[in-house]
Amino acid sequence: xxxxxxxxNDAGLLLLREGAPRPQESxxxxxxxxGVVLTGALAAARAYLSPRAVHDAYFDRLDLxxxxxxxxxxxxxxxxxxxxxxxxxxxxxxxxxxxxxVPGSWSPERLALLLGVARAAALPVAxxxxxxxxxxxxMIGTYPCLHVDLTxxxxxxxxxxxxxxxxxxxxxxxxxxxxxxxxxxxxxxxAAAFVAATRFDPLHSGPAEHAxxxxxxxxLRELRRAETCDASLAWGGREHHATLAREDLAGVTRDxxxxxxEQAKLLVPGGDARLFVSAxxxxxxxxxxxxxxxxxxxxVELPYDGAVVATLRQxxxxxxxxxxxxxxxxxxxxxxxxxxxxxxx
Length: 345
Fold this sequence. Notes:
It is a single chain. The chain is an alpha/beta fold. It folds into three domains: 3-133 and 308-332, Nucleotidyltransferase, domain 5 (2-Layer Sandwich), CATH 3.30.420.40; 141-177 and 256-303, 2-Layer Sandwich (Nucleotidyltransferase, domain 5), CATH 3.30.420; 179-251, ATPase, substrate binding domain, subdomain 4 (Actin, Chain A, domain 4). It contains twelve helices and 18 strands. It has a seven-stranded mixed sheet. It has a six-stranded mixed sheet with strand order 3-2-1-7-8-16, with helices on both faces. A three-stranded antiparallel sheet has the order 5-4-6. Helix 2 crosses helix 3. The longest helix has 20 residues, at 179-198. It is globular. The termini are far apart.
């Protein structure tokens, strides 16, 4: 029997099996095509070829309401979540046990529905934990802290009390300030850079736009190390080049940065607190630095797999017999992983 941690974030699912060197990532996209529902990487590969048939909010809006236009009558958000989880269930052995890490902003009703959908998809769920409390438990210290993360549609800020344990207190989630909103601004800025440099507009073709979006994370990683980077896209038999500047990309999302920072400021704990930011936050140019500036807290960048790594390490505290699983929001501070102090941008 092996333990498996699954972070459920509608920006993407992250699954880590005990003993595996790295997590398996699966984007939270669904596409209805030719009578079949595709999810994860299969849907992402065709998302910008059939954009009107793509759904990206079924975990964010997990409920039993019909999806409406472009989908068969009666198909619900929960059905898309079920299809996505079924695709992951095939990676598991029959006697594995699964521990779910979920944003603290989810309501008890959504958590209950998630458990029901996961079990219907043959995921043997043995524990349920707040993703922020899990990730923050990687850091040793008695100080209180804020944890800032992005889902696809929301910015989620969690306050965690100090002491020997990380106990999540207040949590807020701001709709419209999630990874998708940042990505859309960045994509259009990058496309404008290509137009200015080459007159090639990657947004005028679905496949070209798909290629740009696929390359964007790599360019953003380069811009975390340097002020500029050379972006290239092969299209139409030519290699198109544009220079991207970190400051330009940070500039087009400043209003969104301010929204997240002001949300975080409302929950700043007293004392010698720290600001923990997820990899989804530190990957956006300027965002982590802006939140640190507004809150006045030192920024600590958590590893991208922090929630699932911590969930596996804490599994003995999370395991609970019976169908009614408690939502664990308090865990001992363990340490054991290296985070990055400070933030660029």
